[in-house]
Specification:
The structure holds two protein chains of two kinds. By secondary structure, chain A is α+β, with helices and mostly antiparallel strands. Chain A has helices at about 40-50, 70-75, 90-100, 105-120, 135-150, 165-185, 195-200, 220-225, 230-235; strands spanning about 1-15, 15-25, 30-35, 55-60, 65, 80, 155-160, 185-190, 205-210, 210-215, 240-245, 250-255, 260, 270-275, 285, 290-300, 305-310, 315-320, 335-340, 345. Chain A folds into three domains: about 1-230, P-loop containing nucleotide triphosphate hydrolases (Rossmann fold, 3-Layer(aba) Sandwich); about 235-275 and about 340-354; about 285-340, OB fold (Dihydrolipoamide Acetyltransferase, E2P) (Beta Barrel), CATH 2.40.50. In chain A, the strands form four sheets. Chain A has a six-stranded mixed β-sheet with strand order 6-7-8-3-9-10, with helices on both faces. In chain A, helix 3 packs parallel to helix 5. Chain A starts with a strand and ends in a 7-residue tail after the last strand. Chain B is mainly alpha-helical. Chain B is about 75% helix and about 5% strand. The chains are: A alpha+beta, B mainly alpha. The interface of A and B includes residues 52, 72, 78, 81 and 82 of A.
């Protein structure tokens, strides 16, 4: 059941097209992330949904009602801004109550709902503080409470975690998901952080240069990226450019002389292709035992895992292995690389420039 | 390496020129003026070296002076009010403009400061005169010509024109510090443009408006060129009165007395206003 629909939405700023023909349907209760590098149009898309920017073309409808030209104060959507945009001259409670006050909710009910919202974000004891007396994470939670207290049909989050330090960001991710699960509000989050998008969304929309390039569940997005940009933007990957070959029953790509197996029967022999394999899908084994020979150029210890760069005849490969409690291959030592051919993805077209 | 003087000399040396300047050009003349205001004056023999309070008594009991003080206060307050009413929206619009236009309009607002007050005031006297452009326009539309020049209206109009930049710039600075998304946040929570301005934007420019009002009030209350040229001989304000006492009546002690009273009154009003508004803003903005 489509709850929020964007149909062919575009936005031009003078000669510059920020968003080009975005069509998207979001179900009730869904958590969708708009993911992309800065300047890809994701924030503009969010602002068009919020009503802060008017689309040049296309329609936006909410629950069957066309809201394309509706003023932001009539839409009633909850928005959490990147800067939080709290009212500095009001206390936490007054900030949260503002939306209810605008809706002329009676005083008694207002007090109750503000209290509930502050309990939800675990800030009950901070009701009488001013925003300047709060830490970044607390301000962020005030912003969420302020947006949620009006019981909006859709919650819009604009880079909500980008101003927090790494540890707090991780905590807030789960916090955000917990709150969203609890209230069940349809949520759209804009982010440039792929880990954030993958960990808490039901679906991820990847945007590049104002266009939507892939819409998928996080797991499928990671495993089946539709182009080279997505495969390297979402997680790490090894990209290998070569030519498609068929040798009787085996399908393989010729990468600088080495034949690497992959399954994609419908590609004609001689077609240039790009293969992609994730670092964690490659196994390190003894020299001579794998599909490819190499030498460890450098290794980095990341705590839960090791990250290797391995020099091979077809170029530098990145490999990550879990930390199993014993010291792995040293820098400079020869190793073999092995993987399951199923994990070797073929990326459509010749977009192998990266 | 080791400094032999127990008091570090650098801060004193750095503060020296400014302090000297302030002492020589502000404190000393002020002290002399205070002394002068207590000296007796005789029309035939001039300034006497005897102490007297008679000038102060004259000024506070004579209705002529009180009327001029009252007019000064009224004109300064009205000018401040009009400057705030025009300047605050102007600053808001300015802060929402995009760049080429913002620079252009900022220059338009500051521009009048680049022209001498006397020249601008003569300009107004030409516009407002009985055969000036304003009256010609009034007659063209079918109204009777109005007497504007040499009235308080003329003084207020010209003062507002002179003082507006002093209101716009502090308010604009305060708006610059405001996150533009704060206003957008108010809209998304259901506030109309007007409510968002009133409840969210205005409280945060209070301090800018306060400093603007203080500058405008202080400068208007002590303005000389505008009332001298547009008020005519009869319509005096405090500064023109002081001028007349000094240079027409040659009663320097009386002029000094008026100057001191205006200074003290101005100081009291501004400090009281400052306390009142700042206390309120402090409580919320910190």
């Amino acid at each position: 059941m489509a709850f929020l629909t964007l149909k062919g939405v575009s936005k031009e700023f003078g000669m510059f097209t920020a968003v080009r023909d975005v069509s998207l349907t979001i179900d009730k209760g869904e958590f969708v992330s708009l993911l992309g590098p800065s300047g890809c149009g994701k924030t503009t898309t969010l602002q068009m949904i919020a009503g802060l920017v008017e689309p040049t073309e296309g329609r936006i409808s909410l629950d069957g009602r066309d809201i394309t030209r509706e003023k932001p104060n009539r839409r009633g959507l909850g928005v959490v801004f990147q800067s939080y945009a709290l009212f500095p001259h009001m206390t936490v409670a007054q900030n949260v109550a503002f939306g209810l006050e605008m809706r002329r909710v009676p005083q008694a009910e207002r007090t109750d709902r503000v209290r509930e919202a502050l309990v939800l974000v675990q800030l009950s004891s901070f009701a009488d503080r001013y925003p300047r007396q709060l830490s970044g994470g607390q301000r962020q939670r005030v912003a969420i409470a302020r947006a949620l207290v009006i019981a909006p049909p859709v919650l819009l989050l604009d880079e909500p975690l980008s101003n927090l330090d790494a540890k707090l960001r991780e905590e807030m991710q789960f916090e955000l998901r917990r709150i969203q699960r609890k209230v069940g509000t349809t949520t759209i989050m804009v982010t440039h952080d792929q880990a954030e998008a993958l960990s808490i969304s039901d679906r991820v929309v990847v945007m590049e240069g104002g266009r939507m390039t892939q819409v998928d569940a996080p797991y499928r997005l990671y495993e089946q990226p539709s182009n080279a940009f997505i495969s390297s933007f979402v997680g790490k990957t090894n990209l290998l450019a070569g030519t498609w070959r068929r040798n009787g029953t085996t399908n393989a790509a010729d990468i600088g002389g080495a034949l690497l197996e992959a399954s994609a029967p419908e590609i004609a022999a001689g077609t240039p292709v790009t293969l992609s394999i994730r670092p964690e899908k490659i196994l390190l084994c003894d020299a001579g035992a794998g599909r490819l020979e190499g030498r460890v150029a450098s290794r980095f210890f990341l705590g839960s895992q090791w990250l290797f760069t391995v020099e091979t005849p077809i170029g530098i490969m990145t490999v990550s292995t879990p930390n199993l409690g014993v010291e792995p291959a040293a820098e400079g030592s020869p190793v073999g690389l092995d993987w399951s051919p199923d994990n070797m993805r073929i990326i459509a077209g010749t977009a192998a420039a990266a | 390496m080791t400094s032999r003087s127990p008091i570090p000399s650098a801060p004193w040396l750095l503060a020296g020129p400014g302090a000297l300047f302030f002492f020589g050009l502000v404190l000393l003349p002020l002290a002399l003026t205070v002394i002068l205001s207590f000296q007796a004056y005789d029309h035939s023999t001039g300034i006497q070296n005897t102490f007297t309070l008679s000038h102060y008594i004259t000024v506070v009991t004579d209705g002529y002076y009180l009327e001029i003080f009252w007019r000064t206060l009224r004109i300064a307050a009205l000018t401040t009010l009009i400057c705030a009413a025009i300047g605050v929206p102007e600053a808001y619009i300015l802060s929402r403009m995009r760049d080429p236009w913002r620079s252009v309009f900022l220059l338009v607002i500051i521009g009048p400061l680049l022209v001498s007050v006397v020249v601008r005031t003569f300009g107004w006297s030409m516009l407002l005169g009985s055969q000036g452009l304003v009256n010609q326009a009034l007659q063209f539309v079918g109204f009777a010509p109005a007497r504007i020049l040499y009235t308080e209206t003329a003084i207020v109009i010209a003062l507002v024109h002179v003082m507006l930049p002093f209101m716009v710039i502090p308010v604009w600075t305060a708006l610059q510090k405001l996150d533009p998304m704060v206003e957008a946040a108010a809209w998304t929570l259901g506030a109309s443009h007007l409510t968002a301005l009133r409840r969210v934007v205005m409280p945060q420019v209070t301090l800018g408006m306060l400093s603007g009002s203080l500058i405008v009030f202080g400068l208007s209350a002590s303005a000389f060129a505008v009332p001298a040229l547009l008020g005519g001989r009869r319509l005096k304000m405090a500064a023109t009165l002081v001028y007349d006492e000094y240079l027409q009546e040659l009663n320097w002690p009386l002029g000094a007395t008026i100057a001191i009273i205006v200074l003290v009154a101005n100081l009291c009003i501004m400090l009281a206003y400052n306390r009142m508004v700042e206390a309120r803003a402090r409580r919320t903005l910190g």
